[in-house]
Structures are given as C-alpha cells and as structure tokens.
Amino acid sequence: MRKKIVAGNWKMNTTVSEGVELAKAVVARSAEVPANVGLIVAAPFTHLVCVADAVKGSKVEVSAQNCADHEKGAYTGEVAVNMLVSAGCTWTILGHSERRQYYGETDEKLVVKTRLALDAGLGVILCVGENLEQREAGEHFAVVKEQVENVLFHFTAEEMGRIVIAYEPVWAIGTGKTATAEQAEEIHACIRQVLAGKFGAQVAEDTTILYGGSCKPSNAKELFAQKDIDGGLIGGAALKADDFIQIALSF
Ligand code: 13P
What we know:
Layout: E1 4-9, H1 16-30, E2 37-42, H2 48-55, E3 60-64, H3 81-87, E4 91-94, H4 97-102, H5 107-119, E5 123-128, H6 132-136, H7 140-152, E6 163-167, H8 181-199, H9 201-206, E7 209-212, H10 217-224, E8 231-234, H11 241-248
Parallel strand pairs: 1-2, 1-8, 2-3, 3-4, 4-5, 5-6, 6-7, 7-8
Helix pairs in contact: 1-2, 1-11, 5-7, 7-8, 10-11
This protein binds 1,3-dihydroxyacetonephosphate (13P).
C-alpha cells in the first residue's frame, strides 16, 4: 500500500521563532492524524535545525525546499544535501514551479539535484505541473509527462521508492483556484501510467502522488477521495497548524 502524505511548503514565510511555533503547533495535534498518513513540514533553510529539534520524537518529518546542484565547495549562497541531512532533514522538495519560473530550475538540474539528494539519504518530493497557457492550449498531459520522464527516467525502480511526486498546476498555486478533483485525478492517473510504462505496475502502484495548488480544509476531502491522489503539498494553508492538520484528517 502506498503511503499517504500531507506536506506543508512554508515557502519564504515565517521568522525562525514563528516557524518553531508553527512546527510545535503541528506536533501538538499530530497524534490525531492516522498512522498511515505522513506529515512533513518544508521550512526555509534558516529554520531547519530549530524546526527539526521542535519535531523530534513526533511523527512530523522535516523537509528543505531546495538543495544545491553540487556536493560542496565554492558555491556561495548554496546549501548542500549533506548540510540538510546534518540539520535534521529527511526530505527535500525539488522542482517547485516557483523555482522553475524565477530561478531557472531546469529538468537537467533536477536530475543532478535528485541524484545528490537520494545519494545523501534524503527523500525527494519532485514537483511537476503545467502553467495556465499550457493548460489552455490543451498541453497539460504532455507537459507533465515530459517533466516526469525528463527527471525520473534517470533513476531506478528501487530509487523510486524514495521519490514522491507532487502535481501542482501553476495556475492553481496561491490563486485560490483549485483544480477540480477530476482535473487533478486525470493527471495523477496519467503520471501513474507513465511510471508503469518505465518502471512497471508495482512501482506505479506504490508511488505517492500528491496534489498541490490552493488545497485547503474545504476541498481536501474531495481531492483525497480520488483513487490516484495520495495527499497534498500545501502552501498557504500550511501556515496555520489547525488548517494543516484538518487537511491531514481529510482522507
Ligand atoms: P498554495 O497551497 O498556497 O496554493 O501553494 C501550493 C504550493 O505551491 C505548495 O508547494
């Protein structure tokens, strides 16, 4: 049975102390969340050590939002995968549309980063998703398929066991405009089909695929009821512990 996950992407929000408070508030309610639902908080780099400390002993895991594309050395301002591990992270998000759009993250770079992250022992939450123009042109299936192939086809079936995919239609991120459950489900099913073609039916069946984009307590239930939607990558609603937990209780 594949794992259900609700992950909060805090993006560039909260100070360190606010982040620690938020993490503690999530931990305080985490026991309400069923054992088969994983909880992850993706905090800014500056917060990771303190947030990892705040969640210690609970079921909440800590993720970074990005990592460097080099192992170490003269790359001013970058944060390497072994630093993330040493800070207490067990995951990193990679390929978020905001990084693709504003920081020139390419599929080629994502192959390098995913390789480094897996080799360091981190799990990877790889984000894919079409933008509005692509959706309106009817290219959404092709775009997502290509993103999945370009990155994940460089990895093995075994490595897929440590990779989670997050489908985040760019037009639904932070816009209040959620994909309908049907729109999300048909892309998730398509991703699973792409995985089956490359890695076999079992890997496709076992891979956790999250939905992200204006997911909130009021719509999580309908989204999570779809057979290929295994949870969510939550932005805005993850900044309120009660909303985040409410979403995690929506399976
Ligand atoms: P929102 O939930 O704020 O739309 O953000 C989604 C997202 O980008 C999570 O990574």
